[in-house]
Amino acid sequence: MPTPTQFVLTDIEGTTTSISFVYDTLFPYFKQHAVAYAQSHLAEPEVHEALSQIADTLSQELAKPITTEEAIKFLTHWTSADRKDTPLKTLQGIVWRDGYAQGALKGHLYPEVASVLKRWHSQGIGLGIYSSGSVEAQKLLFGHTASGNLTPLFSHYFDTRIGHKRETASYHNIAQEIGIAPQAILFLSDVEAELEAAANAGFQVTQILRTGTISSKRFPTAGGLDEISLG
Asked: Which of 39, 70, 101 is the last residue of a domain?
């Protein structure tokens, strides 16, 4: 008998949200505003700390000292390269927070996502997010959707601080943090390598097939969250 699902952990890009929203809306917004925002908010602790970490990484990579002011010049390049460095993701979340607050950004969700998440929550299923984007960015997206603020539905948010998404150890860490046996957690993603890492940790997994997703030959698939039947 399969273990009943007690918790659903979901990816964002390509799963609940169009990848094009990230690459065609969020990233361009950050690249347009990052330098000016960083320069004008450099004295703020969270901005200064993230830039200091980026400067440290650059100093090692370039084998020469890099100041926080100089690090600002690399923000656009790192974003274009889609680097997964945690301090960059932190800064992106900060700049996007400002954009959401101004009404310049609105979080995209596929049509069925909000209603299914609400139904699962009402049924007592725990919900969590695991994305390469920062926890800040995750909460902003789900806090500013066309269906309203959905953040109260989620009990847990995870980003690269818990580990990278293609590493099995990350999912062991997540299960421990949630406090539920891996076999009772369902992980949703469009990326087969992420599903493999989660499955190796004992998670239930399902690949969400959106337009352009290459269907897995190894794991269960669904065309949307509304096609998933929780055991």
From this structure: 101
Whether residue 112 contacts residue 147, with contact meaning beta carbons closer than 8 Å, is answered with no
Please choose, from the candidates 169, 161, 167, 159, the residue with its C-alpha nearest in 3D space to the C-alpha of residue 132. Answer: 159
Measured CA to CA, the distance from residue 217 to residue 213 in angstroms comes to 12
Last residue of a domain, one of 51, 78, 101: 101
Beta-ladder partners of 189: 207
User: Looking at this protein, which amino acid is placed at residue 59?
Assistant: S
Which has the closest alpha carbon to 117: 108, 126, 107? 126
The domain of 196 spans 7-17+107-227
Asked whether 93 and 136 are in contact (CB, 8 A), the reply is: yes
Taking only the tens place, the pLDDT of each residue in 129-146 is 999 988 988 999 999 998
Question: Which pLDDT tens digit goes with each residue over 137-178?
Answer: 899 999 999 899 999 999 999 999 999 999 999 999 999 999
- For the entire predicted model, the pTM comes to 0.82
* Alpha helix segments (H runs only) across 123-209: 135-143, 168-178, 192-200
The amino acid present at 103, given as its one-letter code, is G
Does residue 1 lie in a domain region?
A: no
Pairing mode, strands 126-130 and 7-10: parallel
Token readout for 90 is 């932190």
Alpha carbon 60 to its chain's center: 27
